[in-house]
């Protein structure tokens, strides 16, 4: 978990920064005011851009995390032989260097197509519900949402986003885990087909409860930290440049 923990701050900063700046650019271009209240289409475009950009950082981070976790799991070879294979990676740096050496740059972005299919709609169902819920919870007359409004709206948005992203997250994880010792899947469609044939439709919703329960507090804290940090920075800038 050292690699994702070390990179989560950068990843979140990029995602939130791309979303907010894209939203401002759209507002400036369409309405002549970067702070104009965004329409639904504006939020959708900004969310999709954030989802696409997130793959650049999130893909390698997820890949390393899953590879390091999966190398300790037993797998079945043949019909009745199950065993724990040898350790392939000594740590995150060794994992990245090994993947680059054996699979090239494309190996670092294994499962990138599935991540795009997960994150583009996933971030639409992340930022759009947050924006509308935050406005709905905030009392009329308030210039900015309260910490409670941000926390609640962020939590609900996170639960919605992670719940709906679970099917493609399952596919993404299987594609990224594939290749540690065996190469089972040829691509996204093949992974979906094999998973459905062997385990049924329910496999795509495996872990959905955990994702939803985890998504609420994680996203609530993320949005609250973002909004409070932004407010503090703007406050300091106002004091410096009255």
UniProtKB/TrEMBL annotation:
A Pfam family: Mito_carr
Endpoints of the signal sequence: none
Extent of the Solcar repeats: 38-136, 145-232
Gene Ontology cellular component list: mitochondrial inner membrane
Record's keyword annotation contains Transmembrane: yes
Cell location: Mitochondrion inner membrane
Topology in the lipid bilayer: Multi-pass membrane protein
Molecular function terms from GO: transmembrane transporter activity
Keyword entries, A-Z: Membrane, Mitochondrion, Mitochondrion inner membrane, Repeat, Transmembrane, Transmembrane helix, Transport
Principal subcellular localisation of the protein: mitochondrion
InterPro entries named in the record: MCP (IPR002067), MCP_dom_sf (IPR023395), MCP_transmembrane (IPR018108), Mitochondrial_Carrier (IPR050567)
Similarity remark: Belongs to the mitochondrial carrier (TC 2.A.29) family.
Name the UniProt record assigns to this protein: Solute carrier family 25 member 48
Naturally occurring in which organism (per UniProt): Sphenodon punctatus (Tuatara)
Taxon lineage: Eukaryota, Metazoa, Chordata, Craniata, Vertebrata
């Amino acid at each position: 978990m050292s690699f994702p923990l070390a990179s989560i701050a950068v990843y979140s900063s990029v995602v939130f920064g791309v979303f907010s700046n894209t939203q401002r650019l759209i507002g400036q271009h369409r309405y002549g005011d970067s702070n104009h209240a965004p329409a639904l289409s504006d939020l959708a475009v900004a969310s999709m851009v954030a989802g696409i950009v997130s793959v650049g950082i999130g893909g390698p981070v997820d890949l390393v995390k899953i590879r390091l976790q999966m190398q300790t799991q037993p797998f079945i070879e043949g019909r009745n032989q199950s065993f724990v294979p040898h350790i392939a990676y000594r740590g995150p740096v060794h994992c990245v260097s090994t993947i680059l050496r054996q699979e090239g740059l494309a190996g670092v972005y294994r499962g990138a197509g599935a991540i795009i299919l997960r994150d583009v709609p996933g971030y639409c169902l992340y930022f759009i519900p947050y924006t509308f819920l935050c406005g709905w919870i905030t009392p009329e007359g308030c210039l900015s949402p309260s910490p409670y409004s941000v926390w609640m709206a962020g939590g609900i948005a996170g639960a919605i986003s992670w719940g709906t992203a679970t099917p493609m997250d399952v596919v993404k994880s299987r594609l990224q885990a594939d290749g540690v010792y065996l190469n089972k899947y040829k691509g996204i469609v093949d992974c979906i087909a094999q998973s459905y044939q062997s385990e049924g439709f329910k496999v795509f919703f495996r872990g959905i409860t955990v994702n939803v329960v985890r998504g609420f507090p994680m996203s609530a804290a993320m949005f609250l930290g973002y909004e409070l940090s932004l407010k503090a920075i703007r406050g300091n800038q106002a004091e410096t440049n009255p």
